[in-house]
Prior knowledge:
The chain has helices at residues 14-29, 49-52, 69-75, 159-162, 324-327, and strands spanning 3-4, 85-88, 94-99, 105-109, 114-121, 124-130, 150-155, 164-170, 175-183, 194-195, 199-205, 213-218, 224-228, 246-250, 267-270, 274-280, 286-291, 296-302, 313-314, 317-318, 337-340, 346-351, 355-360, 365-372, 375-376, 380-381, 390-395, 401-405, 420-423. The chain is mainly β. 55% of the residues are buried. Residues 30-66 are annotated as: Disordered.
Amino acid sequence: MGRRSPAGRAGRAAPAVLLAAALATSACSGQDAAAPAPVSTEQLPAPSSSSSSSGSASAPSSGVGGPPAALAAGLALRGTPQAAQDVVTGLDVPWSTVVMPDGSALVSERDAARVVRVSQSGTGWQAQQVPAPGPGGSVPDVEPRGEGGLLGLALSPAFAEDGYVYAYTTTATDDRVVRMRYTPGSADPSAPGSLSAPEPVLTGIASAAVHHGGRLAFGPDGMLYVTTGDASAPSTAQDRTALTGKVLRLTPDGQPAPGNPVEGSPVWTWGHRNPQGIGWDAAGRMFAAEFGQNAQDELNLLEPGRNYGWPLVEGAVAGPSGGPEDVTDPAFTAPLVTWRTADASPSGLLVTGDAVYVAALRGQELWRVPLDDGRLGEPERVVDGAHGRVRDVVAGPDGSLWVLTDNTSRGRPAAGDDRLLRLPLA
């Protein structure tokens, strides 16, 4: 189950050693070897000066007149999730979803390299492919293999003016970020529209069969944040000149964003294995969910220039390249929450007005971590395995949580999988 780390944010302190020992025993045995650590009531720190200079999540964004719509929609949500209901079924390895200004949504299908538009039709919802210039209407130049393909999507903060849909893709030679212009269909609001040929935004991210990261999000500062995995080369996560094993911060045109820790570098944070979820609270604090290897998954508070430890540290225990001394090394930033990998394997993340939600694949769960005025509570289960693997969670256009399942990539798909679900809040 999830546990709060009592180590604080200044680094890895002595209390974390005791927690790490208990959790390491738990991870190896498959049993809870100790009761969860007490929840710290210490308030999370405010964003650092280099990140808060751009404004909080509730403040106007640089150049776009306000926070990105997806961020604002999430922060407006509060309440307890209720029973899940189908929005659409029959999706093929869905990976990411973004809500459009008109209340429809786009979903990426990883292996088919397709984008699907989910829109209202009569009293229900329908899913239609949005044609792009590739074979069969797919996004061109995408090379699905292993965990790769068409991954994260994000809408430009100026989408109403420029129509850009950003995507993280894997190709035959690299991982990259591209953008495509979305053109609405006919006067019929249910028409799917179309996508232009992709325009490169960032290229040259090393690729492999697994560990792509692949999540995209525009922050409250209007900059594009990109998560990258270690591409099966763990040591590159500690190489600040490599693009892998990082969270990157870019301008919308793909240049290193001004105010990054190292001028001219896109690197925002480093020491990551496979981060796949990012989001911000109303104060502008940035959270990230990250896959561990065999011991622990993480929920982190990301602060610019910080090193999150991989492969020397995994969660609150030593990583495959580290030892006990690394667990307490103040050079590495400790996670806020850790889970056994069997309970999580986290992907998408959503911050609402009262919680951080984490989609869990292997754990077949949607985790809710209460968030109250900068204080975190104990993680809570929401769906308890009822829908299989959970890939993504976003703020739906109807004030509910919208959740993507991922049972057709691996696991045991049920009839109708994969699904976009809605969980009303009460």
